[in-house]
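Hypothesis: this fold can be encoded by more than one sequence.
Test: take the structure tokens below, design a sequence, compare later.
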């Protein structure tokens, strides 16, 4: 990418940003019953609660739960996605983004199933606790974004990334490794309302797709 194009936003990233922001604005500004209907329609629902629909592993990644949620996801999409769209080409980049997001959703459904199975099999578990796991739902582009982070680390391993907290610079490959370990430990610990294993799922599906493209000679790194 040339210096003049360093801050240009290529078409797929630009459209993804626009769609996510427009959906978020609709969530915030439309009447609450409409916003709730959007979440019921598009959020990734665990099938034990009866709300799962076949399109939700795709639509959930365009919904967000608050300003900080969408801000950091969209900032990462813009920051890493611009470079990756130039690297992969627009069509392949969109495929990669969608595969990472859908893959993250599928991993999250698997984690929901494991958690629900453990809780439901416990005689001491309260009915409300079982119902809470049955009605688990997931929203956000984070799984797809973590896939972008993984791709950036693989395609540009020695590029420097400046962390905000603490303010230190790291090579992209170490940034990815550190983030992956943090997500794994946080997922094992549980709690916090964050789908850590979905983040790891996005990275896993991204890694598999990049390896497939490399072996088939479609990309080189």
């Amino acid at each position: 990418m040339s210096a003049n194009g360093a801050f240009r936003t290529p078409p797929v990233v630009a459209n993804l940003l626009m769609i996510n922001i427009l959906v978020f604005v609709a969530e915030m500004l439309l009447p609450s019953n409409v916003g709730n209907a959007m979440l019921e329609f598009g959020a990734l629902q665990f099938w034990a609660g009866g709300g799962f629909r076949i399109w939700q592993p795709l639509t959930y990644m365009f919904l967000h739960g608050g300003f900080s949620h969408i801000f950091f996801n969209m900032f990462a999409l813009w920051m890493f996605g611009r470079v990756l769209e130039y690297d992969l080409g627009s069509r392949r980049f969109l495929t990669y983004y969608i595969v990472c997001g859908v893959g993250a959703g599928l991993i999250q459904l698997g984690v929901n199933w494991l958690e629900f199975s453990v809780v439901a099999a416990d005689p001491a578990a309260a009915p409300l606790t079982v119902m809470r796991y049955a009605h688990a739902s997931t929203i956000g582009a984070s799984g797809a974004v973590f896939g972008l982070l993984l791709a950036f680390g693989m395609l540009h391993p020695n590029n420097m990334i400046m962390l905000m907290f603490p303010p230190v610079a790291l090579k992209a490959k170490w940034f990815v490794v550190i983030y992956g370990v943090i997500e794994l430990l946080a997922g094992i610990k549980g709690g916090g309302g964050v789908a850590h294993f979905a983040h790891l799922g996005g990275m896993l599906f991204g890694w598999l797709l990049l390896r497939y493209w490399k072996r088939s000679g479609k990309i080189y790194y």
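Strands lie at 44-45, 137-138, 160-162, 169-171. Residues 11-215 form a domain with the Rhomboid-like fold fold (CATH 1.20.1540.10).
Hypothesis status: open.
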